[in-house]
Amino acid sequence: MSSPTLRFVPTMYAAAVSGRKTQTRRVITPQPSFHFSPTIGLFHPSLVDRRTGEAYPGPETWGCWDDTEHYFPTYGPPGTILPIVTTWAIAREWDTLQPIIMDPEVITAEHPIWFNDGTEKPDWAGKSRPAMFFPKSLYHLARQARVTDVKAERLQDISDSDAIHEGIAQDDGAWMSYSPEYSRCVSPVTSYRTLWDSINAQRGKGENKGCYAWNKNPWVFATTFELV
C-alpha cells in the first residue's frame, strides 16, 4: 500500500512546513502478527496468476517482511519526494470545480492554494477540501519533503527523541497535551501519546473501532523526512 502525499492535520502541517516535525507514524494495515520480526528493504512480492493459480515474482517493491508475512510501508524508500498537504482551498470562483479535473492554471500568484496551518483563512479562499482530495495535478505547488529513513516498530516503542521529532510543542517548560484530560505533559512520549489518540483513537469501524489507539500498541511505520 502506498500514499502519494504526506497528509497531516493542520497543527502537524504547520509543524512540518516549519521544520519542527521531521517524523511521522502510520499504522501498518493489515496488522502483522504479534511475533512479527520485520526486515525493511527492496524485494519482489509474489503475485498469483488468477487463471492458473501459479505464483510469480511481482515488480520490485520497497517494503518490510519476515519469513511468513509481507507488509508495505506507507511511503517509499529513502530519497522519495512527497508533497506535504492538509486541509486546503483555492479561489472561490473555482469552488464547483472537482479536484480530479483541476488545472494548475487556476492557481495564480494572486490566488494561490491555501493550506490550513492554523492561521485565519484568507477572504479569497473558497470551500475547505480534505487533504485526501488534493489532486496530483497540483502536487508540484505544495511544499515537498524527502524521505530519509523508514522503520517498522510497535507504537509504544517510540523514544523521547523521536516523539520530539514528531512535532509536539512545548508548553511553559513542559510538553503540550493534546487531550482535555491533561493540562501539560512531563515527557515527550506522554505528549505524543495524547497527540496520537487525538487523531487515531476513534478510527476504525464496527468491531475494529478503536483498534489504532495507543493502548492497542499497533505496528507502525515510522518515516523520517526533511524539507526540500
Task: Report on this structure.
- The protein has 228 residues and is α+β, with helices and mostly antiparallel strands.
- It contains 3 helices and 15 strands.
- It has helices at 10-17, 160-165, 188-200; strands at residues 6-7, 23-27, 39-43, 46-48, 55-57, 61-65, 70-71, 81-85, 88-89, 114-115, 143-154, 170-171, 174-176, 184-185, 219-227.
- The protein has a 5-stranded mixed sheet. Strands 3-6-7 form a 3-stranded antiparallel sheet, with no helix packed on it.
- A hairpin with a 6-residue loop joins strand 4 and strand 5 (55-57).
- It is globular.
Helix count equals 3
How would you describe the shape?
Answer: globular
Residue share in helices?
Answer: 10-25%
Output the structural class.
alpha+beta
Order of helices and strands: EHEEEEEEEEEEHEEEHE
Cα radius of gyration in angstroms = 20 Å
Mean pLDDT: 90
**For the largest beta sheet, what order do the strands appear in spatially?**
1-8-11-15-2
The major β-sheet equals: 5 strands, mixed
Pick out the low-confidence regions. Answer: none
Relative strand content: 25-35%
Give the termini distance in whole angstroms.
24 Å
Care to count the β-strands? 15
